[in-house]
Amino acid sequence: MTDMQKPATRPANPNFSSGPCAKRPGWTAEGLSGALVGRSHRSKPGKARIAQVLDKSRALLGLPDDYRIGIVPASDTGAVEMALWSLLGARGVDLLSWESFGAGWVTDVVKQLKLEDTRTLKADYGALPDLAQVDFTRDVVFTWNGTTSGVRVPNGDWIPADRAGLTICDATSAAFAMALPWDKLDVITYSWQKVLGGEAQHGILILSPRAVERLESYSPAWPLPKLFRMTKGGKLIEGIFKGETINTPSMLVIEDALDSLTWAESVGGLPGLMARTKANLDTVADWVARTDWVDFLASDPATRSSTSICLTVVADWFTALPADDQAKAAKRMVALLDAEGVAHDIGAYRDAPPGLRLWGGATVETTDMAALLPWLDWAAATVKAEMVAA
After folding, report:
1. Which of 38, 117, 147, 315 has the CB geometry, 3.0–4.6 Å to 173, for a possible disulfide?
2. What does CATH list as the number for 29-265?
3. pTM, whole model, 2 decimals?
4. pLDDT tens digits for 72-95?
């Protein structure tokens, strides 16, 4: 095997994982020294700290005043599950699926809740379903950004203002990185571990007034576990959306979320976060345009994610391989980059086509993204040489 020339520059931070994602620039554990560990989350200072996280989140996102925002258990998954189990069943449901997490919500609704009146609008990795086919007299469940496919919805124009059903949006790799049209969304979920680079464990659930109305006027036919219950006596439990969490949160994680939000304010708030994310995608796009062995999995720039940037190998030496060997070759590239300490955890998601997945969220410095790209060329050339020698 010919020894390929290694690039001279390395990323200062090799963490390009799509979740948990890179911590904010300059993060150290010392920043958590003020965490209220050992204190009750129900104490006055504990409640104040949680309220501060919610207030900063509301302000940064630009939420309407009448939208509720609360911290819930089990990360984004828990937030989505709460919405599905608590809200669905009153109407038929349209389910949009074009990557693994959207497919997971289809499984929950069809096989676990066993709702009879469902339609699944599906597309392969790299594409979107036909959004014009969505029926908004029904409830609609979708991901804004497909974390495992690198495909996002282009905007909210396809969602009517006068819809009869609810829109339930998993926005976990879109919140704080993409413009979300709040008037088109009734339930929005995300976790701190994505764009903010926060720690996992807790999720965020946002409800529009229409979603609250559904909760207060409809009771599902199935029992709800305590962790999912958002109403009592037919009324919303408002405390959940004022920092009175359903279960005990980690005050260390709360402190870390506060640290992330404070950093977000320092880089220009939501516009600054979006600009940093766009710069990362633009850097990769410029490289892809001049590189013949790689392309975006999302072929349409209008639906291309700026956070979960998914790449596919299009070189003849790769595409001529059997499927199993393509997967092995892609994993070999990932292993080489990991061993060099220039990129950790950038393999395509296990259900996605073989390739690479780079996180381009706001906590990733564009200088690090630019420094990584020549290393991808090196890894591809090295694996090609290995395959030829074999």
Report:
1. 147
2. 3.40.640.10
3. 0.97
4. 999 999 999 999 999 999 999 999
